[in-house]
Amino acid sequence: MSLVLDAAAQDLLFREARTANTFTDEPVTDEQVRAIYDLVKYGPTSMNQSPLRVTLVRSPEARERLVGLMAEGNQPKTAAAPLVAILSADNEFHEELPQLFPHFPQAKDAFFGERPVRESSAALNAALQAAYFIIGVRAAGLAAGPMTGCDMEGVRKEFLDDDHTPLMVVNIGRPGPDAWFPRSPRLEFEQVVTTV
């Protein structure tokens, strides 16, 4: 059975897409970011909790503060990327559940009254949304450079608050010269899928 998505779209989103390490200086606009969000917001999360939050780092001062928190190998590309996004999990996502899960408004208190439960669920579901975000960047014809090599606690203190847990930093833009490392191997179907 073949996939419904045409081969060009499959290549754009998956087969040819890789983490970008260099970018051109072409700006990434707020309109592009909004279009990305308007696509990926439809990705499913548990009980529609949608805990991902995106902080766009646009000002030179904020960029300088962020670059200082990145691992050494991630600093040059973060300094040069047209746009950088900090993706975080909102640990107070449950406050939005009456709007997002209206057919069971009691879910806010019935399932997520305790902070450790919220943190665990927010981390899982925001990570899922972060993956959608990366695919959305690719769907916009841009390249994404997701990174976890940074001082996460420093990122939280500098850009977020105690109710948000940073997940990753994503460089966004048009790929520049020598943007790609060679493709790393992948596991084969039989190594991953088991039938019981």
Q: How many extended strands?
A: 4
Strand content: 5-15%
> Low-confidence parts lasting 5 or more residues at pLDDT below 50?
none
Q: What number is the mean pLDDT?
A: 96
Q: What about the largest sheet?
A: 4 strands, antiparallel
Sum up the overall morphology in one term.
globular
Straight-line distance between termini:
22 Å
Q: Helix-strand pattern, N to C?
A: HHEHHEHHHEHEH
Structural class based on helices, strands and sheet pairing: alpha+beta
Q: What is Rg?
A: 18 Å
Question: How is the topology of this model organized?
Answer:
Layout: H1 7-15, H2 30-40, E1 52-57, H3 60-67, H4 75-80, E2 83-90, H5 97-100, H6 107-112, H7 115-139, E3 143-147, H8 152-159, E4 164-173, H9 189-192
Antiparallel strand pairs: 1-2, 2-4, 3-4
Word description of this protein:
By secondary structure, the chain is of the alpha+beta class. It is about 40% helix and about 15% strand. It has 9 helices and 4 strands, in the order ααβααβαααβαβα. It has helices at about 5-15, 30-40, 60-65, 75-80, 95-100, 105-110, 115-140, 150-160, 190; strands spanning about 50-55, 85-90, 145, 165-175. Strands 1-2-4-3 form a 4-stranded antiparallel β-sheet. Helix 1 (about 5-15) crosses helix 7 and helix 2 packs across helix 7 (about 115-140). The chain is globular. The two termini are about 20 Å apart. The mean pLDDT is about 95.
Keywords, please?
alpha+beta, 9 helices, 196 residues, four-stranded antiparallel β-sheet, single chain
What is shown here, in short?
The chain contains nine helices and four strands; from the N terminus they run H-H-E-H-H-E-H-H-H-E-H-E-H.
